[in-house]
Amino acid sequence: MAATTVLTRRRLMLGTGALVGAAALGLGGCAGYGGFSLVEVVRRLLQLSANRAFDRLLAPGGFWDDQMARLTLPQQLGNRGGALQQLLTGPLFKDRLARVFNEMAERAAYRAAPAVTEAIRGIGVRDALALVRGRPDEATRYLRGEMAGRLIDVMFPEFGNLLHATSDPLVGQALQLATGVDVNGLANDLARQADDAIWRAIGREEAEIRRNPRGTNDPLLERAFGGG
After folding, report:
1. How far apart are CA 179 and CA 210, in angstroms?
2. Considering 29, 170, 198, 221, which has the largest number of Cβ atoms within 10 A of its Cβ?
3. What are the residue boundaries of the structural domains of the chain, listed by start?
4. Using CB atoms within 10 A of its CB, is residue 208 exposed (0-12), middle (13-18) or buried (19+)?
C-alpha cells in the first residue's frame, strides 16, 4: 500500500502541476479578481484538497483510523439473522470484518483518485466568486455535484472484484453465512460509503486551506483567501 500511496500522490501532483502551469500562462475569459483568475483559484483549491485527502486515505489504515471516513458494516450483513447475526454480535469478529472492508476501501479509492483529478481539470465554473466566498467546503460540494456519482461508478467494480476474490477467511465466512445476500449489493453499499468518506475528507481539507492559506505555500491561494 505504501507504493500505491506514492504512485497516487504522484498522479495527483501531476494534476496540480498542470494547473500551476495554466495559472502562470493566464486563462483568457476566466473571471478575474485582484489580478488573478478565480477559476484557477477554485481548481487549485480543489486539487490541493484532493491531494491531501487521498494522501491520508490511501495510507495504511487511512479509512479505518479516520472516524469521519471509516466504513461501517453494510446493511445487508447487519440485518441478517441466524448464524451470521450471532457471529456479528461478537465484537472481535465484527471489528475485524469492518477493518477488512476499510482496507478494501483503500484499494477502491486508489481507482477514484485519478477520476477526481480529471474532473478538476475539466471543471466548468459558472460562478467562481461565489465558490471562493462560500462555505468552508463550498468548492468540494460543487465538484461532487458536477461528478454526479462518478466515484461510485468507478469504485463499485473494484469492491465487487475484491469481494469475489477475497482470501480473507472472515469475509468468506460472512458471505457463506449470509444466505441470499447479493454481493453486488454489498459492493454498491461499500462504494457509496467510500464515496461519502472521500468527499468528507476533501471538504475537510478545503476548509483547512481556507482557514490557513499560508500553510499551502501557494501564492495564488494565499492571495485569494487572505494569506498574502
Report:
1. 49
2. 198
3. 2-224
4. middle
